From TrEMBL:
Protein name per its UniProtKB record: Transmembrane 9 superfamily member
Natural source organism: Sinocyclocheilus grahami
Gene: tm9sf1
Protein family: Belongs to the nonaspanin (TM9SF) (TC 9.A.2) family.
A cellular component term, taken from the record's GO annotations: autophagosome membrane
Signal peptide start and end residues: 1-26
UniProt keywords, alphabetically: Membrane, Signal, Transmembrane, Transmembrane helix
Localization: Cytoplasmic vesicle, Autophagosome membrane
GO BP, sorted A to Z: protein localization to membrane
Membrane-protein topology: Multi-pass membrane protein
TM region(s), chain numbering: 234-256, 300-327, 333-354, 366-388, 400-427, 458-480, 492-518, 525-548, 568-594
Length: 600
């Protein structure tokens, strides 16, 4: 055990160090110092997750390709940076410098033409600043006769802004540059039996900026190579907030008035003990000897609650880190690294919550419960990743993870995540007390009367899922535009408010639906409370289908498999979080109402 703990601590340090490479200080340059430009990736403009290494295209490249050491988050983000032939020196302008001369074969010309027709863009990185541009130019004009022109940009103008000894911003332009024609059938300049000869050139221009290095992220946010969809949407948020407050007020006021009448009626009629069957009564009081009867599939229920608590902790931690400014547009993949580290660290939360409650409700197979808790999310994640990664590997995309990264992530789970789950489970089992139930449960379960259609599980799931979804529907669009686009989300204060609204609505709706269930003398609330609000995940996945077809231009097998695979996982995570919140809200509500009855 000491050796295992030592290995776990070592891997924990490795995971934390994965966050550090991108949290560096400003790089200081002197006049004439080389500023390295890294080439990174190319891909279709409308498919953000379908990316390929820049050198897969027939472009200028060094004889020996040297790759940059990347952080875990950058690798997960599909970055594969390599040094380029561009010779850029600090504060030294360059005009029409030749990069290289290439003779392209017919196959290579066809490859470039296909990339340009699919609107391929490239991404370079200079001093952690991403630089985007299109590989070529395409023009469609006329119907009869139809004109289809495809051209390759062979000259790039780099515009770099600096302040003192640091780089502030950089972009690339092709203004006043004529593309090299790549006509169908090899009609471009320099075409012969030997292929198409092209000469790549570049210019570098430096401009002084007054923006300090600490604020250079603002300059990148103001730049718009990709379409801007994120705006300050206070009106929509205020509208959602008002609707949510009205909804919660309505539920709370109505429920409290009904409960007040119930308490008055039940306590006046009370003339027996807690074990009396109260045959003349009806409503939620009559099932007081069954309402705390433990549910079936106890281990699975506790695993859901444990993993849900883990993700509640993880999401809150990421939002707090974002509010502290730990993620910005220059830290490639920092949020991915943070999510990996936090997932490993919060595994103890899932083990503790699951095994503690499992012991309280008299579960006996606690070892199996820990294993189930550990696999409840990691198994679907591994299956989804395997399918998505296989598709990326088959297509040659940079989104396919290298073997070293796969081993690192596997080691993180085996040597950090799983041991912390076990440790949390053992601590939870040993510290678990007795289940606090106001009334004793009878051995013989009471027969449940036939319920009307509007109290069935499917109806409760539709109501309990739609209302929380409606509270976040506005913000959900911006989250999707960030996750499946190239936007950098910065409205973390709003996101925290919306997250709190989501949890509040889920808790209140679950309490209301649980009351209606108990008032019909149905005591099967355990799983119902989890499913009613947890069904929000279904609405989120349906919204992802709508977003894919109506709000994005994504297409192709590679992008579609990644989008739907990880959208399904996201919906599952929301179901776990909201199911956990609604269960604990319902349990607290039930304990409150049965404690408030005058039963000796």
């Amino acid at each position: 055990p000491p050796l295992t703990g030592h290995v776990t601590c070592q891997w924990l340090c490795v995971l934390i160090l994965c966050l550090l490479p991108r949290f560096g200080w400003a790089v200081g340059y002197k006049q004439g110092d080389p500023v390295i430009l890294y080439v990174n990736k190319v891909g279709p403009y409308h498919n953000p997750q379908e990316t390929y290494h820049y050198y897969t295209l027939p472009v200028c490249r060094p004889k020996e390709v040297r790759h940059k050491a990347l952080s875990l988050g950058e690798v997960l983000d599909g970055d594969r940076m390599a040094e380029s032939l561009y010779n850029i020196r600090f504060k030294e302008n360059t005009e029409r410098q030749m990069l290289c001369k290439l003779t392209l074969s017919e196959k290579e010309v066809d490859q470039l033409r296909e990339a340009i027709e699919e609107l391929y863009y490239f991404e370079f990185v200079l001093d952690d600043i991403p630089i985007w541009g299109f590989v070529g130019y395409m023009e469609e004009s006329g119907f009869l006769p139809h004109s289809h022109k495809v051209g390759l940009w062979t000259h790039l103008d780099f515009n770099i802004e600096y302040n003192g000894d640091s780089v502030i911003f950089a972009n690339v332009s092709v203004k006043d540059v004529k593309p090299e024609p790549l006509e169908e059938g090899g009609g471009g300049h320099g075409v012969g039996s030997g292929g198409l000869t092209v000469t790549h050139t570049y210019s570098v221009r430096w401009f002084e900026s007054t923006l300090p290095h600490s604020r250079r992220a603002e300059r990148l946010r103001d730049y718009s190579f990709f379409p801007k969809t994120l705006e300050i949407h206070w009106l929509s948020i205020i509208n959602s907030l008002v609707l949510v407050v009205l909804l919660l007020g309505f539920v709370i006021i109505i429920l409290m008035r009904v409960l007040k009448n119930d308490f008055a009626r039940y306590n006046v009629e009370e003339d027996g003990g807690c074990d009396d069957l109260d045959q003349g009564d009806n409503g939620w009081k009559i099932i007081h000897t069954d309402v705390f009867r433990f549910p079936p599939y106890k281990s699975l229920l506790c695993a859901v609650l444990g993993v849900g608590a883990q993700f509640l902790t993880l999401v809150t931690g990421i939002i707090v880190m974002a509010l502290l400014g730990m993620f910005n547009v220059h830290r490639h993949g920092a949020i991915n690294s943070a999510a990996i580290v936090l997932y490993a660290l919060t595994s103890c939360v899932s083990g503790y919550c699951s095994c503690s409650f499992y012991t309280q409700i008299q579960g006996q197979r606690w070892v199996w419960n820990i294993i189930l808790t550990s696999a409840l999310f990691s198994a679907p994640l591994f299956f989804t990743w395997s399918v998505v990664n296989s598709v990326h590997w088959w297509s040659g995309s940079t989104q396919a993870l290298p073997a070293t990264t796969v081993l690192l992530l596997l080691g993180a789970w085996v040597l950090v995540g799983f041991p912390l789950t076990v440790i949390g489970g053992i601590v939870g089992k040993n510290r678990a007390g007795n289940f606090q139930a106001p009334c004793r449960t009878r051995n013989i379960p009471r027969q449940i009367p036939q319920q009307p259609w509007y109290k069935h599980t499917a109806v409760h799931m539709a109501i309990g899922g739609f209302l929380p979804f409606s509270a976040i529907s506005v913000e959900l669009y911006y989250i999707f535009a960030t996750a499946w686009g190239r936007e950098h989300y910065t409205l973390y204060g709003i996101l925290l408010c919306v997250f709190a609204i989501l949890l509040s609505v889920g808790a209140c709706i679950s309490v209301a639906l649980t009351y209606f269930l108990l008032s019909g003398e149905d005591y099967r609330w355990w799983w119902r409370s989890v499913l009613s609000t947890g069904s929000t995940g279904i609405f989120i996945f349906v919204y992802s289908l709508f977003y894919y077809h109506n709000r994005s231009n994504m297409s192709g097998l590679v992008q579609s498999v990644e989008f739907f695979g990880y959208s399904l996982l996201t919906a599952f995570v929301f179901s776990l979080m909201l199911g956990t919140v609604s269960f604990w809200a319902s349990l607290a509500f039930i304990r409150y109402i049965y404690r408030s009855l005058k039963m000796d």
